[in-house]
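Hi everyone,

Forwarding the result from last night's run.
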Amino acid sequence: MKRLAKHLLVVSFDAMNSHDLEKLKNFPNFSRVLKDASYSYEVSSISPSLTYPAHTSIITSMYPNKHGIIANTLMQPYREKPDWFWQQKYINVPTVYDKALEKNMNVAALLWPVTAKSKITYNFPEIFANRKWKNQILVSLMNGSKAYQYNLNKMFGKLRDGISQPKLDDFVEASLLYTIKEFKPDLTLVHFVDLDSMRHYYGFDSIQADEALVRHDKRLGNILDLLETENIMDDTIIVVLGDHSMKKTHSVISLRRLFEQNGYMNYKKDKLIDFKVITKTADGSTYIYLKDKSIKDEVYSLLREFKESTNAVEKILDNEGIRKVFADNTADFLVDAKEGYYFTDKLEDLVINKVEMVGNKVKDGYLLSSHGYLSDKEDYHTIFIVKGKGIKKNFDIGKMNLVDEGVTFAQILGLDMGEVDGRLLKEIFEDEI
């Protein structure tokens, strides 16, 4: 396969909505990328539309039912704070970076989800210290490229404050610019989370979210300036994308309370002891798993009653319905919340009708915007922009899906992904593929 570019740079802006691009196309640096690019404002995410499943679908061109990352966090029902799907070992299928490494290409990944403990050449994985006795820097070092991360922390560690935003993205930006300048990887993957954090904790249309968009525009400008300064712009295809959109939220649903009240879950002093039914939140939706399949009908009836009495639920999918949206087919049900609602796995009140605030910020543990809904919700698209040598100029791709992206990245690098769920975006290339 013909390789189209010496360098492929993929920049992910978490939680970017298609309407953001309507604003950003008038910003100085997003307008630079959009000029002479192929683009889509109509990118459907996967279901449920969460960051870790989404980024894995992006990089594998497979849906969650095949690649295995079905939520952000692992099924650890007795833990108050489950670990996340941090390590690559959880991915069941090849990734674009696996294929690149097989061809002896250099790969860099900065905060790209589900890359911990991978063989990526320059790897700063997204992982955090999830236990009180663990240290953030050591956890990162043990799960990525040790010498590379040590140097990044030595040079730019003063920019960060743990995993708080926007300082973390400031650190990632500085690390990315250094990595491009010093190593010029064949494939670079970077994930910025600033916008997602601001929308979760301050609101979708908040001043803080708008400020994050401004910061992202400046970050993008610094990246473009470096590519020009290093004289590698002409040898680089740059991709700017989002992983999911978000919806404004005002209420929290605790289905664990529903199941506890009806004898399907047993708690002692708010600590889970045993269960016949367990929930696994995906925020905007939630999986439900049954220990005993014989209670399926009565659980479904209970869910139907809840849906009708609260007006908080959009859909209840059984296992057949789950398979149709390519989500976790080991689950018995997937419940999708109505806009304004999201799910928690904490034993809260059944429905908390107003999230608690501290000043202008949501109280810890609550969200003012969320994602993780089924991907067919209205006005719930994200974005995709690709620009560089061999890419059509000012071309509107139209409707597409996250799973179309990885196989297209592979084509740019001259790699073969084999059989995948996604569609190669042949129409973006100037020469026939």
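The CA atoms of residues 357 and 363 lie 5 Å apart.

Cheers,
N.
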